[in-house]
Amino acid sequence: MSVRLFVDSPLKLKQEVILTENAHHYLVHVMRSVVGETVLLFNGKDGEWAGEIEKISKKEVQLRLVKNMRLQSEEKKSDVWLCFAPVKKDKMDFIIQKATELGVDVLQPVITRRTVVGHINANKMQLQAIEAAEQCERLSVPEIRQPVSLDLLLDKWEKGRTLYYLNERGEGKDFEKKKKVAYLVGPEGGFEPQEIEKIGLLKDACSVHLGRRILRAETACISVLAIHNHLCGWK
Amino acid sequence: MSVRLFVDSPLKLKQEVILTENAHHYLVHVMRSVVGETVLLFNGKDGEWAGEIEKISKKEVQLRLVKNMRLQSEEKKSDVWLCFAPVKKDKMDFIIQKATELGVDVLQPVITRRTVVGHINANKMQLQAIEAAEQCERLSVPEIRQPVSLDLLLDKWEKGRTLYYLNERGEGKDFEKKKKVAYLVGPEGGFEPQEIEKIGLLKDACSVHLGRRILRAETACISVLAIHNHLCGWK
After folding, report:
1. Which residue of A1, A15, A178, B62 shows the fewest CB atoms closer than 10 Å?
2. Is the separation of the CB atoms in B189 and B114 below 8 Å?
3. Is A91 in the B-facing interface, judged by CB distances under 8 Å?
4. Which residues of B touch A209 (CB under 8 A)?
5. What pLDDT, in 10s, does the model give residues B202-215?
6. Closest-CA residue of chain A to B102
């Protein structure tokens, strides 16, 4: 299987692409790639391309795009956000990786009252999302947003985007197929009653639940995205 | 929140329960429980009971059951198996934990041709399932079966149990609500064509897929179980 990398540059036939730094290190020192080998490239806009390695130097790998493998339009653009209260490192890594595999478009960390995790490195999360996208053969990379408070999230809510929020012990409706949707998963301790009340005031909000068992935050995140794909079509 | 433990003994009102070894260690040295405290107990048959600690000695914790908290019938018995090709340790731990949270009844490791993981400790997996059941407030514990080869699994297939198998690159039907169902998730490299062929010969087998992206084995396991719950009702 070919190496598959996300790049920033435009991709079109015969285009030259220069890879440096991490990508150079990965190709040369990890994968031990050689001149003539094929690498798959995507940038989230121009589909997937096969590039042939033309030259390897100490700091650069030079490729030439030789074939369009997939069109961007193959990956029908869904519009699904995952808004989640940050959790501990390994679980966070896990949520980013799985949400990317499951096709999420936006990952939005949300600070709630019971959120216990302090510092969030959105840039590092973005790199993890890129890596996951490379491996799961996505043509796009989810956008990692800077953390916001729950209040701010609600105050600035995009009109018309359904917000399904997981209400562990409360009543819940069934998920429905929605064009523009976000799933909000609270911290391990759940939302506080005042938070649930405030979310409920949002016109686009809809309470759902995943049964009476206590699901961990990361299980809930993956579950809602799997159900979303089941309802709205896997890509 | 009370400590919640799975026990082997029968549970009924006024019953005395003696906890030793791991449970003793956990209560006394980890949770620093004292006499008079309440512990929740379940055994997979008699619902959930509150027990009061009556006596703590060097090797035993003695409890008396004082109240029935939940009836076993509250947890409607589903009948869902997860048959999966074993993966590396941390991912395996993850599958056991999440599948338990998502209500699986039987976890069946299956050795396929491309399965690369050697030794499987079903007893240790059982302990992990117990721990996950304790934490997610299940009334039952999934049964961990000894690993079998794919051939043996198919040869001895229980008539009438639908086998949904994940066929990554192949055609797939939609999941349907089924009473008795098993989900079969292959190894990272997928099934071999001959394996797919053999599975397809089984009358109860039905090919499904989760889109064209490459889902990791553990993502696929959780996804099918989340969809199962969505279709058949969360408990």
Report:
1. A1
2. yes
3. no
4. 234
5. 999 999 988 878 88
6. A215
- Max CA separation in chain A (angstroms): 61
**Subunit contact B214:A102, Cβ cutoff 8 A:** no
Expressed in percent and rounded to 5, the helix, strand and coil fractions of chain A are 30, 25, 45
- Residue among A97, A209, A219 whose CB faces B98 most closely: A219
Mean pLDDT confidence for B111-135: 91
**8 Å CB contact of A226 and B229:** no
Provide the pLDDT for residue B235: 66
**Sheet (strand A48-56) strand order:** A3-6, A38-42, A48-56, A61-70, A16-19
If you measure CA to CA, which chain B residue comes closest to A102?
B215
Q: Which domains does chain B have, with CATH numbers?
A: 3-70 (2.40.240.20), 80-232 (3.40.1280.10)
Distance, in angstroms, between A174 CA and closest chain B CA? Answer: 9
Q: Kindly report the pTM of this predicted structure.
A: 0.90
Closest CA in chain A for residue B136: A214
Are A222 and B227 in contact (CB < 8 Å)? no
pLDDT for B147 beyond 90: yes
Mean pLDDT across B112-141:
91
Residue B131 has what DSSP assignment? H
- What ipTM describes this predicted complex? 0.88
